[in-house]
Amino acid sequence: MADAASRLKGLIEQMLGAPLPLRIRAWDGSQAGPPDAPVLVVRNRRALRRLLFKPGELGLARAWVAGDLDVEGDLYGALDRLAGLVWERGEDARTLRQALRDPEVRAAVRGLVRLAGPPLPPAPPAEEVRRRRGHLHTRRTDRRAISHHYDVGNDFYEIVLGPSMVYSCAYWPDPGSTLETAQRDKLELVCRKLDLKPGQRLLDVGCGWGSMALHAAREHGVSVVGITLSQEQAAYARKRAADEGLTDRVEIRVQDYRDVRDGPYDAISSIGMAEHVGAERYLEYARALRSLLAPGGRLLNHQIARRPQRDETAYDVDAFIDAYVFPDGELQPLGTTVAQLERAGFEVRDVEAIREHYALTLRRWVANLEAAWEPAARSAGAGRARVWRLYMAASALAFERNRIGVNQVLTVRTPEPGASGMPLRARTWA
Question: From CA 230, how far away is CA 244, in angstroms rounded?
């Protein structure tokens, strides 16, 4: 099909009613669009069929994961330009129905259907998780969701995360620091906020590969119980504890937070775990952690937050993230999180917003993945590696554009008659 790129560019611009800000290279080798723009590579007509069957974010994601679409040049620049066409324009059913009332849009869609050719629709890539019906965030569904994201091979995560093996926002002393330094500084910041002292007991909820547990035990002399639902993470963390000679102070369990019964603990850290809890379970989560704390004990809750919506009842989860990255994950506004923690009986003492730090962290993870692309793709599979590259790059932009944030909320199980044990001068850990 001669000059497919020009035809595709013209039809897309007719449908959008705006110039396409990317250059297109089509399956026939033809190119069209601004010469200095990132290049959107449309490898085959199947990519068009995916977009026609699932217009918007999910169709783009399916084509990307399957390798039907690619980007040459600046990936961040391409995603930034696409955001204005997809994420910021809206893609719900009502928006699409309204657009299709326009004769120009209907004509463009018919042209794309002819260009795409039969058959419709292609099967989703194997990496996609099918949406489930019924209750979310049961013990069984949470185990399945966690396994999808974390049990993809420790070798793959070693490539992406680097030696620190910390899968949450680092805390950067300056943008030129190493990722390992920034992650160590984050772990130390959490320990200082919790005011850990030798001999205390720490519960690390969602302990990952054990980095927080090991740091707290090694640097602050506490005994740590780390819990995770990932078998691969637990095995890795236990080996690290054994290699460091810390098995007498670090215990790693494959356990749901709802099943922990051996409190009280002097402190609890929950770093990048609460996003998996779900809105309907959040109060239960907060109450469960409070019941495990000794009076005067502190909880540090480190959690990604989304911006509030005008109509919260209309909010839906991100289609790409839910289908490929964090099944059943839910982000809540910071105010909702604080309110739920207070409803559970915690006293909220400090909130620190660190969204710029997560953008820096994600860009380093993307760079690690791109620098070792072949071994990463062999380890987790090419489709899964493409998922991680897209989600981390897009997330970096979301943090930079203030579409999402991340916050450390420090709370206390304040005992009667109200002595919190907190210092008079705020942020003694700074």
Answer: 21
Judge whether residue 197 has pLDDT over 80.
Answer: yes
Does 284 share its domain with 333?
A: yes
Query: How far apart are alpha carbons 228 and 149 in whole angstroms?
Result: 13
Q: Which of 93, 122, 302 is nearest to 211 (CA)?
A: 302
Produce one character per residue of 202-215: b if its CB has 16 or more CB atoms within 10 Å, e if not.
bbbbbbbbbbbbbb
Q: Are 421 and 412 in contact (CB under 8 A)?
A: yes
Question: Could you tell me the sign of the dihedral formed by the alpha carbons of 347, 353, 357, 362, in that order?
Answer: positive
**Is residue 425 assigned to a domain?**
no
Reference 148, options 276, 313, 16; nearest CA is 276
Query: Are residues 67 and 174 both part of a single domain?
Result: no
Per-residue pLDDT, 93: 45
pTM over 0.85: yes
Burial of 179 (0-12, 13-18, 19+ CB in 10 A): buried
3-class DSSP state of 379: helix
